[in-house]
Fold:
Amino acid sequence: MKQLWGAHAPGHAAPASRPPPRARRTASVCGFCLRELGSVVAAVMTGAALAALALLVATEGGTVRIPRLDGPIAAAMPKAAAEGRAPEVSIGGIGLSLDPSTVSAGLTLDNVRLLQGDLAVHLPRVITALDIGAGLGQMLRPRALQIQGGAVQILRDSAGHLSIGAADSGPMMPLMTGRGAPRADLGTLVSGMAGGKAPPLLAALERVELSGVAIGFRDERGGQRWEATDAEASVIRRDGRVTARLRAEIAGAAAEPTGIAADASADLSTGASRLRFRITNARPADLASQFRALDWLAQIDAPVDAHIAVELAPDETLTRMDAVLALGAGTLASGTGAPLPFERAKIYLGYDPGRDLLRIDAVEVTARDATLRAEGQVLLERGASGTVTHLVAQMRINGLSADMDPLIEQPLAFEGGDATLRIAVAPLKVEIGAATLMGAAGTLGLSGAVWPTASGWDLALDLATDRIDHRAALDLWPPRIRPNVRRWLAEHIDAGTLSDLRLYLRRLAGEMHTAMTFGFADATVRVLGGMPPVTAGRGHGRIMDGRVDLTLLEGRAEPGLGGAIDLSGTHFAIADLRQRPLRADVSVAAEGRVNAVLALLDHPPLRLPDRMGLAVDVAAGRAVGTVALGVPLRAKLSPADVDYRVAATLTDVDTDRLIPGRRVTAETLTLEATPDGRCRADHCR
Structure:
C-alpha cells in the first residue's frame, strides 16, 4: 500500500529520515498484526498441526477441530515472555483440514485475540492455506490467508501521516509516513510476499484476503470522518508483481454512502507501483483532502464520481496522475457572496507533480443559463501551507454560451477562443489577462477581472472588437447601463458597422461606470424623428463620463428636393446623460443646393424655413453652412421645442422671391437666422 494523498512530489520536503523515539517505540509494537500472529502462534501450532495432519492423512482427509489453546501458546513462549515482548494471545478454537486430491491443508483460527500493552486486536476468523512441505521442515508456511470480520481504525494526522489501530483500542501504530519513516506490518507483508527480509512465515504467502471488515477513517487534517462496513480487500503475489484490491462503501455526511473500488499493482523488481480508484457519490472536499493535485476542489459542493489513476516511484514519490471527475448539481463557493450554482460538470485531467501542473484534456460545465467547453493547462500556485491559492490557466475555448437576461437581453454564443486566466480560490476572483472569443457576430477581446461581493458582482472589464454589426453591439449592451442612450441608439440607427470598439466596464461597491469609443461606417441614422436619415455615414463616437459624442466624417441625406446633401462634419452630443429629459446638441454641417438644404430644414420638428417665412424654393444656388440645434430627446416634439441658429454661405444665388418685386443675385450671400425671428442676409445686389 502507498500513501497516495501524502506522497511527496519532487522538490517538496520529505519527513526526516529517522522517526522520533516515540515513533520508533510505537513502530516496534507493529508485530502485532502479522509477525506475532505468525511467528509466535505458528511456532506453537506447527507440532500440533503436523500431528493433526498425520491423523487426517491416515483417515483420508477431513477436518479436525481443537478447543481453546491459551495455555499451550503461553507455555510455548518462555523466551519471548522473558524478554517482555510476548503478546497475550487467545484463540477460541482451531480447525485443520486436508484435501487428499490436492494434498493441500487448511488452518482455521476462530475468535483470535491479541493484546500487547494498550493495543488489542480481535479477529473473528482467520483461514489459511498451508505449505505442507515447509511444515515438514519445522515451520508451517501459509500460502494464503483469509481474515473474516474484525474492525480497523485509520488515523490521518495534521501532518498527513497515517496510523492504524483496532476499533476498540485507543493507541495507534504508524502505518506509512513517507520515505525514512517507520513501516508497519502491512509493509512487512508486502516485503514478505516479495521475498525480502521478512519473517520466514511469510516467505510462501501468495494471497491475503479480508472480508466483512469494518474500517473507520479519521482525517485530522480535513476534520472529516468516514465509516465503512463489510469491506473486502485482497493482496496477491503473482509473476513478480503484487496486486491489491479494496471494495467498500463508506458512510459520511452524504445521504447515500460513498463507494470506493481501489486496485494497486507493484513491480517487485523495480518497486514502482500503479493504483486506480473508482469513487462514487463522494464530495469534492473529500477528494481535495486526500489528493494534493485536487485540493482546489474544496470550494465545490456537489456529488462527484471519480476515476483516478496514480503512478508511484520506488521511493513512494508521485510521478503521474490522471483523473476523470463527473460532478452533479451543486455550487461553487464565492467566499464573499452567494454560492454560484451549476447543474453538472465533467473534467478530464492529468497531473505533472514535478511542475505542479494540471493538463486539462477537456472540461464541460453546464449551468442553468450557460455552458462551457474548454481544454488547456492549469498551473497550481500554493501558499506557505501548501494549499492551492491560485489557478493560472491557459485555456482554449471550444464553445461558450450564456443567457444573461436581464443583464444582456440576447443570449451570447461563441464557437471558439482562447483565454489566459488567474483565479483566486478563496475568496473567488477571476483575473483575465487576455481572452479572445469568436462568434457569429465577430471576434471579441476581453481583459480585466470579476469577483463576487455581498451586493453582487464587482468588475473591471475591457472589451474590444475590430468589427461588429451595430445590432450585435447593442445585444452586448446591458439594458441597465445607460438605458436611455441604448434605447435612442436602437431606435435611431437602422444600419451600420462598428469598428475598433472599446468598451470599459467598472462596477465597484455597487456603482457602475462605463466608457466606450468606436468608429462606424455604412451607417443609416435618423437623428430626429420626421427628418430624412443620414445614409452612408462614416465617423467615430465616444461615450464617457456621462457624455455622448458622435462625429460624422462622411454622410449624406436625401430631403426629397434638390438632390443629396453632404453632411460631412456634422456633430451630435449629449452633454449630460443624467439630465432629464435628455437633451442633444446637434451641429449639422450641410453642403448642397439651396432648395435641398431648405427642404431638409423644413422637415418636422424643425420647420425652420416656415418659421423664418421662407419657401423651400425661394432661391437657386448652392449653400454651405451649419445649423446648431438644441433638441430634447423625447417622443413628440413641436417646432417650439427646438432651439436653432443658422449660419450659412450661399453662392451663385438667384431669386425673385426673397424681396417682392425685385430680382436678387449674388455671387456670395451670408445668411444668419435665430429663433427670435432675426434673419439677416449680406452681400446681396
Q: What stands out?
A: The first strand starts at residue 62 and ends at 66. The chain is about 15% helix and 55% strand. Residues 1-37, 50-61, 71-78, 175-198 have pLDDT under 50 and may be disordered.
